[in-house]
Amino acid sequence: MNHEAIKQVIYEQHAIIRSAVINERAYTFEPNANYILTGLRRSGKSTLLFSIVQKLIADGADWNQIVYVNFEDERLVEFELADFSDLVEVSSELSDKTPYFFLDEVQCVDGWERFARRMADAKEHVYITGSNSKMLSSEMEARLGGRYLSKVIMPYNFKEYLTARQIPYNDEALYTSKGIGRLKKASEELMHDGGFPESLDFIDKRVYVENVYQKVLLGDIALRNDIRKVTGLRILMKKIAETICSEISYSKLYRVVNGIGVKISKDSIISYIEYAKQAYLLFSLENYFAKFTERESTPKYYFEDNGLLNLFLINKDTALLENIVAAALKRSCREEFYYLKSEKTSIDIDFYVPEEATAIQVAYSILDTAAYDREVNNLLKLADSFPEAKRLCIVTLDEEKMIQHHGVKIEVIPLYRFLLER
User: Fold this and answer.
1) Structural domains of the chain, with CATH
2) DUF4143 domain location, by residue (predicted)?
């Protein structure tokens, strides 16, 4: 490929990075490691690369050492595997010092992983991002032979969201009425709008999130997996959104979708859900009490970002509250958390984190007697029959207190405090 054209792309990218305002994120990088960043589209992967570049420059690197290429640039639409050699040659033309390669949205080039392996074997410094289902971190670890460390990048967590909005969460904020009020309001806004970094710049955040959703659905799921019946995929995602808070089997989803006149096979439903998980749109939760086969057949589904879920819901704050708790747990616990349900004991607990021995119920409010009795009694039954659970919690929108019943302690935690813990 023409070297001058590649240099133009690189130098223009330098200008973009120089002017970028970077908000602090909860990710750290080893200076001597190579990385591949995957995750939900528009979650901030490129901006993280910008922050790495800015740190390199601050630590003394020259801009000509930075070989940053965004493969979604239309000028690189004909870039092929063989052209990566030109990229290496350009780096030596720019500087005789150690280059740093940043390959953004590299999945646009077929066979890119061969180049990535070669560069790692040559002890070059390489950072890679990708968004679609072909860039799953687990798959990439196998294909790249352990040469790269992988990180899954997701939309803002609560602390990142507060930092981006310049809302303090220090001791003064946590112990003053004004500070607590701002934190409560921010947690509700995150619950409704989600945490896509760029959405903070939009007045109508729903329009931005809808655009992201369409790109994930039509691009990362339908196009990448050659799904022609997009209507069936759309309806399936809508029905899954309506099941938040409840476990549901493939068979039931098949009956629900086909019951409204959309003809789609059970095998297709299974495949579509897997594609949605691969695209980081959904994740699933298993029943800790169930046998392995049952865990696989009756999961609970959640959306990776609340803004995406809220596209499907009207006045469903209870579902949004549970989803944001689930998403926060996924970030902090990775895959090591479950729900608890036993017909034998009638226990029905929203979340259980084995490593922390923590059981969590989610309730919008427990001021109502029926809601109080339901949530508290479930946790009391759990304490009586499942001593492994040492910490018992109820996450509410904004209520906070300690309940004690015959030696059993139950913490009632407002959403903002729970999210700050995570």
Assistant:
1) 3-152 (3.40.50), 189-421 (no CATH)
2) 220-362
